[in-house]
Design goal:
The chain has 249 residues and is mainly alpha-helical. It is 67% helix and 0% strand. The protein is globular. The C terminus is likely disordered.
Length: 249
C-alpha cells in the first residue's frame, strides 16, 4: 500500500504539466478534464495534445494516442492472470491498467498484495492526476498567451520525461528511438502535422527483427567457444566438443 501511495502521488502530480499543455494546445479546461477522466493514460494524452497544438488534425492525434495506448492491452494480458478479477469489476480494473499500476502489481510477492498494490496505485494516480489536470489547465488559462512564458514546451518536455526511462532501457529501445526520430525529422517538412508521428511508429518494427550473432561468432571454428579459443576442441570439454564426441560414438 505504501508503494502504491508513493508512486501514485509522484506520478499524479504530473497532471499539472498535462493541464497546462492541454490549455496551450487550445483545449478548454473542461476538455482537458474529460480527456483525463476518460482516457487516463498520460503518454497518449500528451501525444494527442501535442499533435493538436502543432496544428494537426484530430484524427491524426487520436491515432497516435491509440498507438501509444496499445501497450496497455499487453499489460492487461499479464494482469488478467495475476489479479483474476471477475464480473463487472473487470471494466473498472481495465481503466486503471497503465505503466505504474502494472509495475507495482508485478512487484508484489503474492496475488493479494498485487491486488492491493494495483488498486491503491490506480486510485491514487486517478484522483491526483485529474485534480492536477484541472488546476494546471485553469492556471495556464489565466496566464494568457503560453508562448510568453515558455509554456508551449511543457507538452514535449513532459512527454520526453515519460519516455526517457524506456529510451535508456537497452539497445533495442535506443535503435527504435533513433529510427523514429529520423523518420519524424525527415517527413515533418513534407507532411501535415501529426502524420510524421504516425509514420515514426514504424520504427517499432526494428524491435521485431530477430537477433543475429556477430560475424566473429559465426566465423569461429567449431569447438572454440571462448574469446581466446579456450572452449576446448572436439572431445576436450567444450559443449561442441562433447557433441562431436557423442556423434563419433
Amino acid at each position: 500500500m505504501r508503494n502504491g501511495l508513493g508512486v501514485g502521488l509522484a506520478v499524479g502530480l504530473s497532471g499539472f504539466a498535462f493541464g497546462a499543455a492541454a490549455s496551450t494546445a487550445g483545449l478548454t479546461a473542461a476538455q482537458a478534464c474529460v480527456l483525463s477522466l476518460l482516457a487516463f493514460t498520460g503518454a497518449s494524452q500528451f501525444a494527442l495534445t501535442g499533435v493538436i497544438g502543432a496544428g494537426g488534425g484530430l484524427a491524426a492525434g487520436v491515432l497516435g494516442a491509440v498507438l501509444l495506448g496499445g501497450r496497455n492491452a499487453l499489460y492487461g494480458l499479464r494482469l488478467a492472470d495475476l489479479l483474476r478479477v471477475r464480473g463487472a469489476r473487470r471494466l473498472l480494473t481495465a481503466h486503471g491498467v497503465i505503466d505504474e499500476t502494472t509495475a507495482v502489481a508485478n512487484a508484489q510477492p503474492d496475488r493479494a498484495s498485487a491486488r492491493t498494490g494495483f488498486y491503491v496505485t490506480a486510485a491514487t494516480i486517478y484522483v491526483t492526476w485529474n485534480l492536477t489536470t484541472l488546476l494546471g489547465a485553469l492556471g495556464a488559462a489565466r496566464l494568457g498567451d503560453p508562448e510568453t512564458y515558455g509554456l508551449d514546451v511543457l507538452g514535449p518536455a513532459a512527454f520526453l520525461a515519460l519516455l526517457w526511462p524506456r529510451l535508456t532501457a537497452g539497445r533495442t529501445e535506443a535503435r527504435v528511438a533513433v529510427g523514429a526520430g529520423v523518420i519524424a525529422i525527415a517527413t515533418t517538412p513534407l507532411l501535415p502535422p501529426g502524420v510524421p508521428v504516425m509514420l515514426a511508429a514504424l520504427a517499432a518494427l526494428v524491435a521485431l527483427l530477430p537477433y543475429r550473432p556477430g560475424r566473429a561468432a559465426r566465423g569461429r571454428p567449431a569447438g572454440t567457444e571462448g574469446p581466446e579459443g579456450t572452449g576446448g576442441t572436439e572431445g576436450t570439454g567444450g559443449a561442441e566438443g562433447a557433441h562431436g564426441t557423442e556423434e563419433a560414438r
